Amino acid sequence: MTIRVPVDLGFSLMQPTRRLIVNADDFGQSAGVNGGIIAAHERGIVTSASLMVRWPAAPGAAAYGKAHPRLAVGLHLDLGEWACRDGVWEPLYEVVPVEDGDAVAAEVARQLASFRRLMSCDPTHIDSHQHTHRKEPVLGIVSALAASLGVPLRSCAPDIFFCGNFYGQTDDGSPLPEILSAAGLLEILRSLPAGITELSCHPGDGDDLNTMYGAERSREVEVLCDPRVRAALPELGIVLCSFKDLRKARTPVE
């Protein structure tokens, strides 16, 4: 017989209040990214992070995650990265061809194994670098993995609304400085629907990445740590939570 044990999260999953998961992508990609995510977790509103297991800074990120269990850590699948240069998207690197299902499946299995080795547990959620999981064959492969683990897959969980609006560039890399401000973030938060939302972010310190999204990362840290943002949450009817909180609340006890 399956018995569900109630978990006190400070809210009920059945209440109409708005719950917000603030998830930092790219954890482990560099020391600067790690520092920014840690700052935004300890001094700001970040509650979850997604680990890129292939990068040299991943062990440090994992060590922090294991030592600070309030931060939920998921898997940020990394199949490649593309940058827009003069209006043309060009690959910065490719791990495997995203159209090769067999290669993708093998790489996804490798990255899950690496996550388990680094974190000594399964991920609390799954997403992917530059949203490569949104198209087939990657979508089917990663959806099956998320289902087997019983964890949410970004943009595919029916009860979790995904919001990617807190991003300081347009699709072609043009700057959107007004977004990366306390006022910009608060405007996003005011527009969130009832229920559970995942808000993605990309905080980081320094310039130790070859990426089209660089200087914006430090600005994200400032905004995510702005005390006006946290102070406004109760007024907006928003309660912070993490993917780990959701998993605990939904885990059946035999």
What would you note in describing this structure?
By secondary structure, the protein is of the alpha/beta class. The protein has one domain (3-253): Glycoside hydrolase/deacetylase (TIM Barrel). The chain is 35% helix and 22% strand. It has 8 helices and 11 strands. It has helices at residues 31-42, 58-67, 101-119, 138-149, 182-190, 215-224, 227-236, 243-250, and strands at 3-4, 18-27, 48-51, 72-77, 80-85, 88-94, 126-128, 160-163, 195-201, 238-241, 252-253. The strands form 3 sheets. Strands 2, 3, 4, 7, 8, 9 and 10 form a 7-stranded parallel beta sheet that branches. Helix 5 runs parallel beside helix 7 (227-236). It is globular.
Features:
about 250 residues; alpha/beta; TIM Barrel; about 35% helix; disordered N terminus
Fraction in beta strands: 15-25%
Shape: globular
What's the number of domains?
A: 1
CATH domain topology: TIM Barrel
N→C terminal distance: 6 Å
Number of strands: 11
Mean pLDDT: 91
The DSSP helix count reads 8
User: Structural class per helix/strand content?
Assistant: alpha/beta
CATH superfamily: Glycoside hydrolase/deacetylase
Helix content: 25-40%
Q: Largest sheet at a glance?
A: 7 strands, parallel
CATH C-level class: Alpha Beta
